[in-house]
Structures are given as structure tokens and as C-alpha cells.
Fold this sequence. Notes:
The chain contains 10 helices and 13 strands. By secondary structure, the protein is of the alpha+beta class. Helix 7 (173-180) packs antiparallel against helix 8 (184-192).
Amino acid sequence: MKRTTQEITGLLIGRLWEQYIKKIPYAKQYADMVAEKGGKVVIDHFAFRTFNAHTGEQPEGIRALRHILNFLGYKPVSKYSFPKKRLNAVHFEHPDESFPRIFVSQLELAELPEWAQNAINKTVKNTTYLITDKSIELLGALEQNGALPSEAAEYLVDDLVQYFRRPWNIPLKEDVLKLNDISQYGAWVLLHGNSASHFAVLVNYQEVREWPDLETTSNALAGAGVPMEGHIEGEKGGRLQQAATLAAKKEVKAKGETGIENMMWTYAYFELTQRGYIEENGTKKLFNGFVGGQANHFFDMTRTRDN
């Protein structure tokens, strides 16, 4: 029995979602609440953050994800720029519209102060590539043949899942704290690496009668004790509306003066998305992209008073 590229892609996304909800209780609570109502959890998009820097054996910046996504059928669709945050981004889409969009951003190190560049570069410069040689061969075979034997597909998915974590050594606590003052995005990536910064679900297709839109869904989560940000981004009836929980925190490791220390740091948040309709070539369809101003705001979701 063989697994097609689309099946393998679906398996990988499913595993990444399972990994995410184990760490983000708000997402698990949403999934449970929707299931209780007989609805569906439909992933709209998920996102990654990167450094546009030499990261050892791993490709730099957006390419760290793009080279994998290409093998899985994803193609870049739109580019975004966030000058004040020194970020650039690309969103990718799959030909099969049932697959979620993937949003990948990168911090432009050349635009940071020299001390910040040095702090990041010394941490990431010797990064090892987290994908095995066997998986690289399997990705090539998948691209050529469009399918893999089931056992090989399972090996590949297991291996690829391990890529989505911090690939470099434990950073210095001093570097993290100092970098956080000028780029909380940079501090986040230093600590979490290739981990997903958030997943977003599409309320348009959740099929819960009591929660027909973003506002009612967001209110239901807040009523159940989920810490919501309290503000919906985007106009009602517009192309894109987004709401989010506060970011969950996670214990991370950093090198202190006396050795490895554990400290709490923001990890990921959970997002709700509602898409409006646009007309394209005389046909109404859901808006597929992102709105730069709103995306700009969501980078700040991993900022807290503590860090």
C-alpha cells in the first residue's frame, strides 16, 4: 500500500496539530467544545518564525520551511513586509483547498544593532539539520513519484515532526533578555526555533449552530474561561476577521551564570478566523490571503508584561 503526497501532507499537519494542542490548553478546549456541539475543527492556517541568518546546516529564514513545503505541494502565494518589526513574510497555499495556509516570517538580522546580530549568530551558526539523510531521499522520491510505500511514509512523517522545534543549542539567558528589549520576536525564535507560533481555525466551517460567527465563538470561549485578547481584528463582514487567546507560557531552558536555568516564557497562542467573500473573475469565493495591518498586530501576541 502506498501513501500519496497529499496523504503524507495531511498526516504531517495532523501530527503538528496534535503536538500543538497538547501544549496549548486553549486550543484543546476549543476542539472539545466544538466536538460536544457536533461541529468540526477546520484549520485555517498556522505559522512559523525564522531568522534570516546563517543557521548552520539548516537553510536560512523562510527557506527553512519553504524547502520542505515545496516537496509537499505548497507554493508561495503572497509576500508581506513589516518594516517597523524588521520582518518579512510569505504565505503558502496548497492546490487542495482543504489544506490550511501556512504563514512563514523571518527577522532581518541585518537591520538589528550589531550586538544583537552577534548574539543571534553565535547561537545559531552551528545548527545541525534535524532531517535525516534517509528522509531527504524519501522527499526526493515523493517529489518524483507522488507517493511512498506506507512504511516509508510513516518514517518520513515521524522524522519531519521532529524538525519543528528549536534546532540550535540552548541560548544564553542574558542574550534572550537583552534581545527581548528590542525584538520580542527575536527572543521568541531564539528560544523556540522552528516551533509553530500559532494555529488558527476557520469558524466559517465549524458547523455549530449556537456559534455562527467569530464573535459568538469568541464569546463562548471567554465564557468558558479561556483568556481571550478581548478585541476582534478586522471589520465585521469584511475580508478577514481574527480573534485570539492570550499566549500560553511554557518552561524553557537558558544558560545562566551558574548553568542551565528553567524559566517561563510565552510560547504560542490560539487564533479564530472568519473569512469574508470576495468576487474574482465574476465568481464569489472566500478571501484566501492575510491583511498586513492585522498580521502586524498578531506578532505582538507573544509579548507579555513579564517578557
